Each structure stands twice: as C-alpha cells, then as structure tokens.
Amino acid sequence: MDSINCTATDLLPLLGGATNATVAADFICRRFEAVSAKLTEANYAINNTYLLFSAYLVFAMQLGFAMLCAGSVRAKNTMNIMLTNVLDAAAGGLSYYLFGFAFAFGAPSNGFIGHHEFGLKNFPTSLFDYSYFLYQWAFAIAAAGITTGSIAERTQFVAYLIYSSFLTGFVYPIVSHWFWSSDGWASASKSDNLLFRSGVIDFAGSGVVHMVGGIAGFWGALIEGPRLGRFDRSGRSVALRGHSASLGPYYGQWSAVGRTAVTTTLAGSTAALTTLFGKRLLVGHWNVIDVCNGLLGGFAAITSGCSVVEPWAAIICGFVAAWVLIGFNKLAEKLKYDDPLEAAQLHGGCGAWGVLFTGLFAEEAYVYEVHQGRRPGRPHGLFMGGITSGSIAERTQFVAYLIYSSFLTGFVYPIVSHWFWSGADWASASKLDNHLLFRSGVIDFAGSGVVHMVGGIAGFWGALIEGPRIVSCYGFNPGSFLSISKSYDTSDTYYGQWSAVGRTAVTTTLAGSTAALTTLFGKRLLVGHWNVIDECNGLLGGFAAITSGCSVVEPWAAIICGFVAAWVLIGFNIFAEKLKYDDPLEAAQLHGGCGAWGVLFTGLFAKEAYVNEVYQGRRGRPHGLFMGGGWRLLAAQIIQILVIFGWVTATMAPLFYGLHKLRLLRISSEDEMAGMDLTVHGGFAYIYHDENDNSNAPQFEMRRIEPATSPQQDHNSHINYND
Fold first, then answer.
1. What is the pTM of this model?
2. CA 474 vs CA 131, 409, 465: distances in Å
3. CATH code for residues 39-229+255-371
4. 330: closest CA among 285, 291, 282?
5. Domain boundaries along the sequence of the chain
6. Cα–Cα distance, 148 to 66 (Å, whole number)
7. What is the pLDDT of residues 602-647, one digit of tens each?
8. Which intervals hold domain Ammonium transporter AmtB-like (predicted)?
C-alpha cells in the first residue's frame, strides 16, 4: 500500500490566496478519496481472509468425521469408512462445482432454485468471490459426511458414490438456497416479503446441514436394514461396539466468534454432561461415546440460533438436546432402526430441536444486529523432509533420519528454493530485470518442483539404496501469496490479490478431487477392487501437481491437472513394481512424479491475465503454450525439472549411500519383522487383547487380511487369510 503524504509543507504553496485555498481543499479531498479506496480494499481483503480461514476450519471437520466414523465402526470396516469419508470431499467437490453452487446461489434466481454460474462460469462476480464458493462447498460435504455414518458397515461403494454426488450436487444446494440465499423463499436475508415477516433464522445450519444429512441418513439406514447381528433372534438390541472410542473426542466443530463462540461452547458442554449423566442413570455405566455424541448433539442444536440467543439460553438448548438424543435413541431401538453413529438421531433430532429453539429464544436486538439490510449470501521448508520419511519408512535407523532430515532441510532444499523463489536468482520468476530465464523465469508458485520434487527425489534415492522391506494438502497453496491486502492494476479483475487467493483455493480443491476419483476408478479397473489408499494418494497427487500453477490457471484446467496427475501416479507405481522399488507411502512417485507433471502443466495452461496479476512488474510475460503464450514458459519449467533432479540426486544419493555403507541406514531383520513399535518405541499403538494379552510376546504376529485376486460378483467378497 503506497504511503500518503499530506503535510503543511505540501499544502503551503497552495494556500497563498482564495484560489489556492480552493485548490488545496480539492487536493485534500483527493487524498482522502485515495485513503477511502485503500480502506475499502483492506476491508474486502480482511473479509475474504476470514471467510477462507473459516472454510479451512469447516473443511477440517472432515478429519473429525473420519476419526469419529473410524472409531465408531468395528476394526474390520475401518478402511471402508475412511474411504467413504474421503469420497465425500472428492465427489462432493466436483458435483458442487459443476451444479451445486449454481443451484444454491446462482444469481439471478427464483425462490426455489438458482440457475446461473454452473461450473463457476463468469467467476468471480460482483456478488461472490472464490472464497465464498469454497466456504459453501465445505458445508455441503459436511452434510454428506453425516449421512455416511448412518449407513456404515453394510453399504456398497457405488451407492456411496451416487448418494454423495446427488446430495452435494442437488439435494443440499436446494435447501441451502431456500434458507441462505438472499432470493430464497424462506430466507431471513431477503429485504421484502419475508416469510411470516421474519424469514427462517438458521445461522450455521441446524436445519440446512444437520437435518439434511441426518434425514438422508435416516432413510438410507431404514431402507437398507440393520447390520447382521445388531438384533438377536428375539429382537433385543445387541451392541456392536466400535474399535476405538477414543477417536470420538477429536471431532471438529464450527468456527465462531464472540458471543457465537460462547453460546456454541455452552450448548455443547451442557449437552455432553447431560447425556453422560442421563445415560448413567438409565444404563448404569459411564460411556465416552455418550459424552461425545452429547457434545455433537448440543452443537447440532445450537447452530441454528447461535448468533441470536443469550448464553443462558444456550444452556437450555444443550440440556434439552441431550434428552432429545436419548429419546430418539430409545425410539430407534424399539423400531429396530440401526444407525451405528446415531447420526440421524443426533443431527436430525437435535437439529430439528435447534430450529424450534431459535423460534423460542431468539433475542430481538440480536436478530436485528445479524440480519439487518440485504446481503448477497450467508452471514458469515520443512515439508519435504516428511515426504522423504515416507519413502524410507519401516526399515530406517533413527540416526539416519536425524542426519538426512538436517541435511535436506539445512542445505539441499534451501539451495533449490533460492534458485526459484529468491527475487534475484537465475531462474526466479520474481526478478524485475531483463535477465529472466527465457524471458519468463520458472513459475512454481507453491512448490510442485521446489518442495514435492525435492522430497520425492531424495526419497527415491533413499529407498533405492536401502532396498525393499522384508515382506511380512489448504493453507499450503493460498498461503503462498504471503500477503492478501494488495490491489491489482489490471482491467480484467474484480478486486485484487484476495480474489486470486480464493481462486487458488478452488483450483487446489478441484485438482485434488479429480485426482482422487480418477485414481480410485483407475486402480479399480486395473486391480479389481476399491482401495482407500489409492483414493488418498490420488488426492495428494492432485495437490502436489497443482501447487505449481494453482494461482495462474482456470478452475477447468485444474480438473485436467488432477486427471493427468492420477495416471502419472498409477504409471509410476507400476514402474516401481517392475523395478522392485519399495516405497510404503508411494511418496517418491506421488510427490516426485506428480510434482514434475505439475511443473509442466503450468507451462501449458498458465493464463496470461493471471500470470500478470500474480507476477507484476513486467507485463506481457510468456504464459501457457496451450493458452497462446508460446514455448518460453514451458521451456523454463522443463529447466526447473532438470536442475531439481540433478541437484537432489547429486546431494542426497551420496548421503544415503554413505549411511548404507556405514550400516546406519537400515534396521536389523529381526527388528523389521517384529515391528519398530515394539522393538524401538516400547509397544504397539493398538492393544488387541485386553485379557491374557500376549502382544508383547516374541511370537506374537497380527494376521493380514487381503482381498482375493479375483473378486466375486456377489456381495460376499472372498477373503484370503494369510498368516
């Protein structure tokens, strides 16, 4: 932001007479107008930052959903439930991008449904920026995650895919349009014709999110029927306990500020304690699942009125929510309704109570404060060391980790980052003189090459030298802007750098989602079964690839990036198998291979306007080959790949080889077979036997369960048990 000087010395030459006094007044007014414009830009930037940060927090709830689901199901279904939770984000990301946001907030629209901005066409607009899309997407996939819990442990994968896409692309967006769009027929944000002269106040989603997910889960579980063994022959309830109740308390929660944070905290705390003591009176024992679900029930109930009620009312809300949850659980048992996570009772029942609660306890002053006027929408360097660690996992001595990590982060990586991210070095795109590499410099915005390739290649050499085992990504990309309150002096942007930050978050999401789905289906075609590891690694591969060009490509190009990244990952994994190269986390293939593709992708798809936005100071820079920008940027990107590969190879390969020759790299065969948790770290992460435990016995080994090479056509998959 340029400094504004307006001192007596500046004004003195203009104050000689009446005429000059008028000129001086005009001068001062112009200066104040400049200040006002800067404040407007700063205000918009701060609001977008807040919205992006909130979106990241809401998205972090997916981690909580995954942990809660994994802990609440039996150990034999952990992989399945983790797969479906990742699928909610991936499939939901694409369906909400293509259809959901347009149905929810596309303007102009009618009271029932939106019908503009499909695929974020013409984004950003005067009403919405990319950050707003990301925030709404995070809420959409939260609704899908709720439903996943209701139908856990017995649902086919294809069904998950269909319902998740349909829920996030159509069902949820319609409901959110009704209540959160300024055009929705029941929205409290309308300026006229409010429903009952009030509109529905559902500030953070008791109805829109929790009820939608809970009711969808209710019908899924009811139609599908209970799990085998959930009720005995006489119809009595049989508890099918999850394998790790301790995962439940780490469930995420909505972000809130001020009074809203207080009411949310009080409602959740009250509900947790009430459920804990209430169930203690009814069944005679204390249960961590009860307190966790009570906490969630309180959150589900208060989200509707959290911004418009007093703290004391939030306590009432949480107290009643606990008994609503207990009551619905009793009713579910009588109906022989089986919901492993109590999702329908918790989100549907407590969410419904929360909607009613708001109608009973909303304060007039708070309602006016929150819902006044017409609003456009709702109110509201060390990384690469970890990459290498994955490549050499399960067989490396601790001293070797310490040496390579220090060397990589203290010497190898800093040299590469200096080459491409320093403002004055030979390949940097940030230089302002006429000595840019190929008149472009290398564009690696957030590190496909600098971070992912460095870590991946280092890991490759470590794993290759060490040999195989004995058989027995959101603050990262948008945060790379470093600052947000910065205007753009171009005619084809709505605002400034804050808009580009939102766009960067969207491209990151789309690339990751596309890569996750493509890897999942691609590996299904190749090996014949669905695998959560494939989906997770595909997601990471998409993130690794898009980090180079995330700020300078269109959202549709990010989908291409993710699609190709998935096949790059699959191809490198096939190649690794042929080489007998063993990387437990596929880290070198994922970060090295997909990172290299991301560097090339930027040279092909970088958009001229975005390159000029992000890399200011030299207009007319070369851009992507496929975008009409010629070959120069692509050539610079290829140079980056070559020098990174050469530098990391020349430094890390000798280091790993030296450790290998000194016998400091690999653990003994005995330690590797027994597992380092036991031999190095003092015990296993999981206790598998509570009674007559023999997990510490030398002969103790867990069984592996592997899918058959030829999957069956019926629902009962054949399992091979290998000791």
1. 0.61
2. 12, 22, 34
3. 1.10.3430.10
4. 282
5. 39-229+255-371, 383-672
6. 10
7. 889 988 888 877 766 556 778 889 988 888 888 877 887 777 777 6
8. 50-246, 259-369, 385-470, 474-686
